[in-house]
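Example complex used in Figure S2.
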Amino acid sequence: MAKRIDVSGLTAYYGAHRAIEDISMTVEPRSVTAFIGPSGCGKSTFLRTLNRMHEVTPGGRVEGKVLLDDEDLYGTGVDPVAVRRTIGMVFQRPNPFPTMSIFDNVAAGLRLNGSYKKSELNDVVEKSLKGANLWNEVKDRLNKPGSGLSGGQQQRLCIARAIAVEPQVLLMDEPCSALDPISTLAIEDLIGELKERFTIVIVTHNMQQAARVSDRTAFFNLSAVGQPGRLIEIDDTERIFSNPSVQATEDYISGRFG
Amino acid sequence: MSTAPLTDKRPSTLRGASLPKWSPWAIAAGSVALAVGIGLAAALDSKVQWGLIAALLFVFGTYGIAARVEGRRQAKDRVATSLVWVCFIVAVVPLASLIWETVKRGVKAFDLYFLSHSMGVVADNEPGGGIYHALLGTLEQVGIATLISVPIGVLTAIYLVEYGRGKLARAVTFFVDVMTGVPSIVAGLFILSFWILILDMGYSGFAGALALSILMMPVVVRSTEEMLKLVPNELREASLALGVPKWRTIIKVVLPTSIGGITTGVMLAVARITGETAPVLLLVWGTNFINNNPFSGPQASLPLYIYRQYSAGTEVAYDRAWAAALALIAFVMILNLAARGIARWKAPKTGR
Amino acid sequence: MDISTQNTEAPPPTPPRSTAVHKRTARGATRPGDRIFLGLSRGSGILLLVIMAAIAVFLTYRAALAISKDDANFLTAFEWNTNLEPPTFGIAVLAFGTVVSAIIAMALAVPVAVGIALFITHYAPRRLGGPIAYVIDLLAAVPSIVYGLWGAIVLVPHMTGLFGWLDHYFGWTGIFEWQGGAPRSMLTVGILLAIMILPIITNVSREVFRQAPQMHQEAALALGATRWEVIRMSVLPFGRSGVISASMLGLGRALGETMAVATVLSPTFDISASLLDPGGGTFAQNIASKFNEATTFGQDALIASGLVLFVITLLVNGAARMIINRRKEYSGANA
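Predicted assembly (945 residues):
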């Protein structure tokens, strides 16, 4: 189910501006990798290059390689639509489709990919909502609009929508930054469960969160405003937070800047 | 576990068979060639039909080819793209033709003589003559309409933004919206019933101006309202906090801040009523002679002149109609461009 | 802005009553200047209401004068003879023609306008989208008489081929039967009206599509949606009510359009099933064509038909407003 990501020499641009430069790393399957770093360091941009969402932004383009197992996402003939189908994404602000019911939101991805029997859809929706720890809260109102849920519930609905299509990798772009502490805890617990099935990459500005949920942590930084962001180091989370090999990482973690 | 059938439907690879980048152009070229072929073979004499056939071939061809090579979803996507392009081209053709034909046919009779002479002694089937009387009439009628509707419109907008709460303001807002949708001929009929039939005032430029001002008022109210809303509240409060009375605050602070936007709105409204024909037809009556006095006797007007020359139906009259249309479009476009220029130049930098 | 100088020259304010500053509503105006200014601006608002009421009252009054002498049924009669004694006239033909031409115009213009709006916001290269939107904005300002002139002289001759083709293949339906007369028919009128209202509908729809939330489009993209699927899932649902109200505005204009119909149509006072044969008429066109020869009574009869047009456009515009207002509530709830 889950796949490995190998990034080598990746540089991303917004028009002429170089947002991130020469990033290489490996993300292991069935693990949680957290990206931390000061704002503007390009961690979200990098995350969006991993499922080709970066090129949706006007002027966005990418150089370098991203291998999913052995296949280059940016190779010739690769269909970005298929890439995004394989690598799911959860966004900073919960964004369920406002005109769709809870059920339709979860089923949205499946419906794109051909026709399913009603019973099949029911099964998948139930399984995904259970997987997102949301089933018990919404099972009686599946036909109500998703926008009626609380923020934390909406975010879990978005996670259910993303995992319903059984992606190989799940990218999360600061999924808890718009949520209250209790909802955040629910999502963090959920991440712990999801990593049994998916490769997870999470961007967070909250270092405690990175320490709590991730197996590996990557630290991004930029030398000055306007300069491209770079990957400073990536290591086991424990090591990054106890004994990082680069001074800048330690400065950041101990709160000296950022 | 129900995942088994799902897994089968997922793409086995990220790579799908896909058409080369040039394929839309190739399909477009092929469709046009085929449409021309069909058009010639079936001896269809209208180019419009050739175009329609080409468009249909393009859309269906795209779907067929893409569905075969890339699959149904991609094919739908490509059809949507080609349909959107077809929509664009279908719309561009008549609109471009409108501008092109007006300019091409308009320049024939368009010169200084045309601008500076009336139709006083020129019969419909004779060449010569001009739009001086019509231009004069239009300027006077539009001028009067502007003088009537701008103060009322701006004051109403001030009432709605600065004072308006409660039922009266809501009613005014609603009826301004309703007034925006009143057809111009109905506005003309109203002035006809009231001014000419009941008060027995006779046809005149002023009667036309009254109808035009009914059409202009709601537009002025709407645009002024939008502009006043953009003035930040801090400015008003700063002035009030200095002890400046509210009415002076409005005149000295609020209006000057939004004057650029209000001017733009007024110019767009003027451009709109300049082209109105129907009320002028009912109320100004039209004449071939110069009438300087908008308050008495029939006047001419540019849109009405176009209609009269078209109705005359001779070749030279058509030429005059096109030349007048060119003058009218030029006037309206210059007003529009200038208004947009002012809007861009005077855009409130403090807003938002 | 010289607030300070004004402050000095301002009349010494009446001793600040406790609520003078924060009671800034209409009732708070206590100084003479404030009272006069409020009176003027409120008076303008009331004047607008009076004008609207006057339109309804005067049209109804003159219409009543005419209809009371009508020997035929005003709503159903198929003739317009205001000079006969007793006069007989009815609006059936006009109502039919107005509705048919507006339906044709809407059926053609709305899909194309939505297509162009999507083209500008989601398909065109960015450098092309802006200028195209600007040009279409300008085209919305072209006076209707120019559309009428173009329609009558340029468009009409171009229709013969299409009409022949429609008659040949679809003549059996009756709707597309053509006797071969000049193509100054309801279909041509509908097509011209469609071209006229296209810029308005496009502009409003484009504005709505442009505001479709980026986050919902990204959500669809991240699920592996193609561009069309993104539009179907997140842009069209968001823009639907906006497109409807834009269409209503266009419909209002198509219903009331005078000159473009008056120049293109060769009117007759009967109803024909065929859209291709010349004939029929619309409210506005009938008023413009009959006005010059009308007696005072004839003018009253025309006013009566104008009143019906007024009521129809009021209903259409009212419906559009209601849809827009409801949309405001929705978007407020989602924000």
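The domain at 132-346 of chain B is CATH 1.10.3720.10 (MetI-like fold). Chain B has two domains: 18-106, 132-346.
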